[in-house]
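Write out this protein's structure.
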Amino acid sequence: MNRALVLVVSLLVVLSLETTAGALQAPFLSKTVNGTTFSASWASVPDATGYQLIYAPSPYTGPETIQSADLGNITNITYSLWNGAAFYIAVKSYNDQDTSGYSNIEHIVIQLADVTDG
């Protein structure tokens, strides 16, 4: 089996095992890529006071590469990246008592077409 595929499956397993039995729903994540800019958004979750972005590089190289950023109570983000950037992203909702499981996982790839002067 291809090593990259094994690592991606491992990422999915790690993220799926790290769920809580709490009452908060996981957000549903949507993304768009336009040139070197990507945007992600999700509907607010009832009783959530904030959201956490979880991200890992692609190709995924192991659980030690998973990072997170507290987003506060915003429900959309936009970032400018570089050509060739690639990440897996997910979102969790939280409040003072609970944290949801992971949202769906999205794959962000910034791949610009080569442009040559003619």
